[in-house]
Fold this sequence. Notes:
By secondary structure, the chain is an alpha+beta fold. It contains 6 helices and 9 strands; from the N terminus they run ααβββααββαββαββ.
Amino acid sequence: MVRRSAVVALVAAFLLLTSGAAQQKLPRDALWEIVHDVCVPGQTLRGNPAPCSRVDLAEGAEKGFAILKDPRDTSHFLLIPTGRVSGIESPVLLDPGAPNYFASAWEARRYVLETLGKTLSRDDLGLVVNSKGTRSQDQLHIHVDCVKAAVRDGLHHNEDRIAGDWTNFPMPLSQQLYMARWVPGEDLGTSNPFRLLADGVPGAARDMGDHTLIVVGFTRMDGARGFVLLTNRVDAVPGSQAYGEELLDHACRIASQRNPQ
């Protein structure tokens, strides 16, 4: 009963984050406890994953995921594994049979669009995992939301500098320098960004926790559809914090700045 009361109190605090009185920091295992102790049992026992929007256990709890809205923001959703995964540094993400959480997170963009009541271009949407030192939770979570208009425009203005291998992106994005690469495809079904980072950036496999990883939907001038992957590393340049979430706009102002495509 004590455990249940503690979980209920945690969920209540999470859901009240939008009020000024509830802006305290949550415990670093809050997301894990909400998903593991509330959303998963709710789905399996009652067919109701609340407060999560979805719980997918098709491949079992160790490889499943939940979708949870951040109540502080307009259109911000999180994909959270239902198995224990600490963060970007977890070696299980690079296992041959590891789930492609980014692919599922890209599919989860529909929750952003449904919340906004708009149809946005793929180029307006992004996915982010922050570095170990800049995250607030010790359970992997992929941020799913709109990107800043300046980020979208910066990528398009430098399209010719984004190729199939990791290269230095020529301009700062939100005042930080990144490496970028192009990944073709309508979705991420055959491309795992964690693996592309570990295999493609020298040293990344040894210090994954010092990296942030961003995936932005992208349409090239010739109509080819795919994604731009971005990464930087803590102290890669002086002041770098590897906080990729800075490229997202949790107020989704981009939704009112252009006509949807």
